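G., the chain you wanted modeled:
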Amino acid sequence: MSQTQLSNTRGSTFTTDGSGFLQTSPNDPALTNINPSYSTTFSAFSPQRIFTPVGSNITDVTFSVPGTSGATPATVAGFGAVFSDVDLQNVTRLEFFDSANNQIQSLNVLPGTTTSGSFSFLGAVAESGEKIARVRITTGNSDLGPSEVDGSRVDVVAMDDFIYSEPTAAAAVPEPSTCVLAGLAALSAAGLCKLRCRSASSS
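Predicted structure as tokens:
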């Protein structure tokens, strides 16, 4: 299966099995030509771009020592993302993996408080020395498309800002993955919640 990669000099590489990524404003023709409704479905948290894979709703994030263009693998101690227009429970999620590809934690993103253009945040911080080598982001239950109109059974989700700790060179021997990450649940009127359950959903 072919994959598309997007790297930056800040120590992260984004990969999807779709055809690529879009970094656009919500009303950019590159996005609205796929579906005109997306100009009001999504909002930009940081003016004025959103980020989304095309042809897939899966994005994998790996880390490298900044400035090496992905050549020197690294791990991080924390990662979070802002999501736009999460409508359904237990669909959009972050999964965290160590250097041996063992899953450390899986957390679900809370739905937003409005029907269109809402924002949700989800992140996790390693409390006990766990090393995060990869994060799998599942955005909704459908990729972008002309017939994927946001509704009761279809949830199309975009991303905005990403937050992660300074990537450090990966250890030669992977860290054990028996400890649990402490997650930070979605932003809401009640503030941030801390999640400790390995099989936790944001609630």
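DSSP finds two helices and 15 strands in the chain.

Shout if anything looks off.
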